[in-house]
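Q: Protein A?
A:
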Amino acid sequence: MTMGPVTSKSDEQVPSVEEATSTPPGVPAKAIEGRSLGQIAWTRLKRDKVALTGASVIVFLVLVAIFAPVINKFLGHPINEFHQDKINPSLGGIPEPGTWGGISKDFLLGVQPVTGRDMFSQIIYGARVSLLVALSATVVAVILGVVLGITAGYFGGFVDSAVSRLMDLILAFPYLLFSIALISVVPVTTAWRIGVVVGVISFFSWPYIGRIVRGQTLSLREREFVEAARSVGAGPTRILFRELLPNLVAPILVYSTLVIPTNIVFEASLSFLGVGVLPPTPSWGRLLSDAVNYYTYDPVYMFVPGLAIFIMVLAFNLFGDGLRDALDPKANR
């Protein structure tokens, strides 16, 4: 009995790299496309379902704030319309017990104590105030923090020492007491009060991003691309805003999304203490303050604005965490 030749694995023909990667005849070769850092970050962010959920909630709340008059027209009542027939003066100005704050098909979130105003309209219009103050304060704080932080980190020396000591002083200051003292003496108009609240929040927020930008600038100013810019005669302004700033976009963007919820809570705290936005302009913090006297009778008065603040703050925090992971090249996702 004869046996045929035995072929080992080493004798088998192994395709070369060129053959393995070549395309079949008649099929056009597919060009290899590189991906930018933005595309890589977006791909990573799309895989983070928690961050996308937070972003969806943020978009929803922003749309509610923008279209509050339209929404209120169909689902609520005029913002300053009193409904005395919905409250019982003998009970201290609250609805009848067991009605959950007066919730019904006509008043989706009940009515406000004493005044009887629609809580639904107060909540959706209050979202406007919270987002306006928080976003405005964040923009001002980011501008101050970036300009001063990048200047201190690049120039060093006396400039760095002066800016760093200023940041330490502001961070050590009792900001809540200062805010109460300052806001209580400003002219009693809604526009002035909102402007001062934005100024106070941004003034006490910029040192945090200033420290982050300063630290990043200290590590970037010795990099090769900065030395190359100096060698071709680039001045400090060009190096700061054309070379360094583009490399700081990621941490600035991440910190901005994380400081917004802090500013929302800051504004609510000031309104809770009575030095925030003036009535009758709706404010979630003032709704919480008004509910202090009534939550033992009906917890809905504290639960509704508290839940609104909780959802908005949580959404920004979840999105900020996801954005940080997407922009961090060292993150293992």
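Q: Protein B?
A:
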Amino acid sequence: MQIRDMMVPIGDGIELEVRRIQHAEPKGPVLVFLHESLGSIALWRKFPEKLAKATGCDALIYNRQGYGHSPDEELPRPHDYLETAGEQWLPRLLDKLEIRDVVLIGHSDGGSIALVTAGTMGGRVKALATMAAHIYADHLTLAGIEEMAVRYRETDIRDRLARYHGNRTDDLFNAWQTVWRDEGFQAAMDFSRWLAAIECPAIIIQGENDEYGVPEQVTDIVAGIGPKARGVLLEDAGHSPHLEKQDQVVELLYDFLRSESVLKNCN
């Protein structure tokens, strides 16, 4: 596998930071990784490489605006920031890179964005996997954000995040907690039209001990997509199952993609 980091112009003077993992002979669509609200390319750690190696698929990992070397985002975040990221910015990036067929893999905010993109891009999305995606703010979401805000002030969480986000750390943290606590944002969240438009097989994953979401997030997403979707609650996992149970999630996603005939030449 070859790994390359680059900046990709997508119009309007915007360049997004991306990492590409490429095989000489890829065995399926491109795996596209969408990070969480406090995440980044680096914070996926080795998960994209392991899944790309297991599946034989190329991979694209990117930083949204406001993250890494990508340009600043609009602050405060508008209520439709998830929809805009999924409906406009990601399709533009894929078009610029001339990537047609994809498997979307999103974590937390990235999972919610992946739902929008899957509902927007139709048949180009061959499969969808989300981990800890949200389609509404539930009581665990709000309590988890409140607890994290306290930890941000009173522990070394800020310093740990700053290793990845540098002088943007406070802006990113405040953007995340402010918009999710905004009652206008909570009231405006409605993913129903995108869920209903998803055409591909989907696996909706959440840790049983996820501190930011109730299990009904999974069942409601599955119900909104329909029979093409399946839900998985992972034992002994929290908000980041792909890091906490990395090998298990790699195997789970490989088996899912193989069972849905997304991968080529796999026995």
